[in-house]
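Run log, item B.
One chain of 225 residues. Sequence copied directly from the ordering sheet:
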Amino acid sequence: NPLLESNGLPKFSVIEPSQLTPAMTSILEKLEADFAAAERSMAKEDGKEMGYEDVLPVVERMQHPLGYAWGIASHLNGVKNGDELRAAYEENQPKIVQATMKFSQSKPLYDALLKVQKGWEEESESKEDDFVTAQKKRAVENSLRSMKLGGVGFEEGTPEQVRFKEIKMRFAELSTAFSNNVLDATKAFGLEVADADKVEGVPESARAMWAQAYRQHAIEECEDE
């Protein structure tokens, strides 16, 4: 499955809509298991010193396969939208939202990042290059802010957390529906130009492309009749 090969550039020419669900199932199962193990490890380190390399890079490596595959799916859904791909995308989107919420609402991860931040505050001098340290601090700060906005402050199972998750799921659903409606409206739109003077100055290549699109549209209309 090319969606699982995240070490190089996307192989767009061989990616099929039918590959999306198997890829997401495989990635999410591994991600859930790996993150659960990471949370247990972070919880065991309670009270112990924890460094940047023990937390954020570990989480980012876990998330990479999901970001890679879902990023490709999102791109193709926008530029090569079709019934099969749209159905597969909508089927998997709730699973992706749930997976990302597990990260943003993870107390062990949030506490570990706070420890990293606190460790920097207690250090009188940095052992690393100031620029590198500054970027790491910024990454941790951004992650903490994102987790706060992502609902990490809600207690597990409370009505507030349940409602927050419902809103996130509904927002994702509406966002996809809106994008689909825009794509459908864009595909359905057409403008017939019979007067060549109205496209004067337009490159010949563009005019040829539009003429071909018109001929193709006319053929499809005849087939539908």
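Observations after the first pass:
- Residues 48 and 153 are 23 Å apart (CA to CA).
- The chain has a mean pLDDT of 90.
Flagged for discussion on Thursday.
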